[in-house]
Amino acid sequence: MTHAIRFHQTGGPEVLRWETVDVGEPGPGQARVRHAAVGLNFIDTYHRTGLYPLPLPSGIGLEGAGVVEAVGEGVANVKPGDRVAYAGGPVGAYSEARCMPADRLLVLPDAIDFRTGAAMMLQGLTSAYLLRRTYRVQPGDAVLIHAAAGGVGLIACQWAKALGALVIGTTSTEAKAELARAHGADHVIFYNREDVAKRVREITGGEGVAVVYDGVGKDTFMGSLDSLRTCGMMVSFGNASGPVAPFDPLLLSQKGSIFITRPTLMHYTAKRADLEALGGELFDVVTAGKVRIEVNQTYPLRDAAQAHIDLEARKTTGSTILLP
Fold this sequence. Notes:
Elements: E1 2-7, E2 17-21, E3 30-40, H1 42-49, E4 58-59, E5 63-71, E6 83-87, E7 97-101, E8 106-107, H2 114-134, E9 142-145, H3 151-162, E10 166-171, H4 174-182, E11 187-190, H5 196-203, E12 209-214, H6 221-226, E13 228-236, H7 250-254, E14 259-261, H8 265-268, H9 272-287, E15 295-300, H10 304-312, E16 319-323
Parallel strand pairs: 9-10, 9-12, 10-11, 12-13, 13-14, 15-16
Antiparallel strand pairs: 1-2, 1-4, 3-5, 3-7, 3-16, 5-6, 6-8
């Protein structure tokens, strides 16, 4: 008997249900994965609330790690017994086992365990495309990373520092600031009591940063734009505080001919070759010790609702995993 977390209506964490599911055999192009660990991410709350709509009823979760139990016709990139991890969909990772497209799976290096694999894939691949594709960070660049003590933040801060950047992070508490500093942040700004753009200008000698990585959304958007140097890049990749309100594109010229993009991991990994390339870069920096994956919270999978409550209350730091 296999169980999974599913929801039949959108809403708060209480809509998440622990249900029996029939996994079955993998079809053509699919693999059946027995999960050892599942990743928790803020996008899961967007699916649960309906901000990012899904057909209902639905499973939930985009990230996991485990062992391939069986493969369907035409699958060549993985085989039964392989240790694998994935991120980015389709939804349904909050499960003890599942069938999914085999071309979304990456074989884990021996040096990376299942818990690390489940904790690093979505946040790590997100950091990979942000820092190496959307805006390719160069030595000497000043970068601003919001929510620096969060899952993406801790990875991105370490990676940006390893690339030779001046790393400025934002956070809300002294404890989170210490965590960010320990993971590569050269400067930390308390967004809840400081003027972020003003402090960025002070730190950068009035120039501003080359790029802002903003997964917070509504609350930080204007401050992010005001933190950029001339022709800088605003990367808005999340909505933790709510979606950004519509704005006049003329604002971009008024603030220094700045650029703005709203990327998603799904587009940057849509092609198998791109997924493998980004995954390879991520595995390399982790196995080399340049990026440490912090699994700071674990919950039983059946208690996913409590994990959502804590995530939305900003009680978590680093990565969180659910254990089947």
